[in-house]
Automatic annotation (TrEMBL):
GO BP annotations listed: tRNA wobble position uridine thiolation
Task of the protein: Catalyzes the 2-thiolation of uridine at the wobble position (U34) of tRNA, leading to the formation of s(2)U34.
Disulfide-bond pairs as recorded: 101-198
Molecular function via GO: ATP binding; tRNA binding; tRNA-uridine 2-sulfurtransferase activity
CDD domains in the record: MnmA_TRMU-like (cd01998)
Alphabetically ordered keywords of this record: ATP-binding, Cytoplasm, Disulfide bond, Nucleotide-binding, RNA-binding, Transferase, tRNA processing, tRNA-binding
Family affiliation: Belongs to the MnmA/TRMU family.
Organism expressing this protein natively: Nocardioides anomalus
Record protein name field: tRNA-specific 2-thiouridylase MnmA
SUPFAM superfamilies the record matches: Adenine nucleotide alpha hydrolases-like (SSF52402)
tRNA-specific 2-thiouridylase MnmA-like C-terminal domain sequence ranges: 284-356
Any Gene Ontology CC annotation: cytoplasm
Domain tRNA-specific 2-thiouridylase MnmA-like central: 213-276
Amino acid sequence: MKVLAAMSGGVDSAVAAARAAEAGHDVTGIHLALSRNPASYRSGARGCCTIEDANDARRAADVIGIPFYVWDLSEEFHEDVVEDFLAEYAAGRTPNPCLRCNEKIKFAAVLDRALALGFDAVATGHYARLRQGTDGQVEMHRAVDDGKDQSYVLGVLDQEQLRHSLFPLGGSTKADVRREAAERGLLVADKPDSHDICFVADGDTSGWLREKLGERAPNTEGAILDEDGTELGRHEGTFGYTIGQRKGLRLGRPAPDGKPRFVLDIEPVSGTVTVGPREHLAVHGLTGIRPRWCGTPPARLRGTVQLRAHGAEHPAVVTVDGDGVEVELLEPAYGIAPGQAAVVYDGTRVVGSATIAATRR
């Protein structure tokens, strides 16, 4: 097969490209230039999307012995990922930019271009497994390494995208991958993993949101209220808070019982943030919109849902009705916010995902 290997500059994508080439595929490496100003994105140990990463990817391609190119998708990334992230926070929701990037950039813009250029598949360094199902469809399953499993952020992929995807690392552990990289002579063998949000240069998401949204957010300041409506403090923008947040509230008075308060609700129109005890964060059900299914959509499924990238699985009953998804959680989940993704599993198999529109307590 002709395979396009997306190479971020990290160890995972380098080993994935090497494995694809070793398997006999005709591999071409590409690095995605996602920043209109690479110096504004992360660098060093927290890196992703930097000039340093592009150079690391190019050196890895040279060692593997495959052609290498840089594709400029900075405009698409800014519009579909960065602007979407800003709009969601301004509306009081909590988005996951990695899912949006996988959906709109890595497995839409890149895959579409790859197929148009005559490639058969795109290979990435994601930790997930693909296998042929009994119905002939391609199934995506959790990775062998639970600590590195990335199936949650891939839950937006549909069947057509999965048919043209390769995840060579799904059956390996991170330790195995680093050891193999060193044996192959790849200089990124010991390069630290990137983490947090790649387009927030210093890691201060609240500060970055305040800078970007301060002038266009509907409320740059407002009240922090207790559940009975008592004002406990003031804030400089609802976009600086997320459901379930405990730290950084800077309240003027402690709770009557002395226990920590958590953000329970965010109302961007009125500019109010409501706080209360942790037990009031319990969510027993949710409504999902914009579902994306990895295969045939289920009508009703008793399985599990994962609600955060590194969160636990929650036993649930999932009911699909047209473009809506209702999830009954069989055990309560805490700190779940609209805008997050609910990824549905049947055992280790990823069924699909939906964006949380509302929660029920």
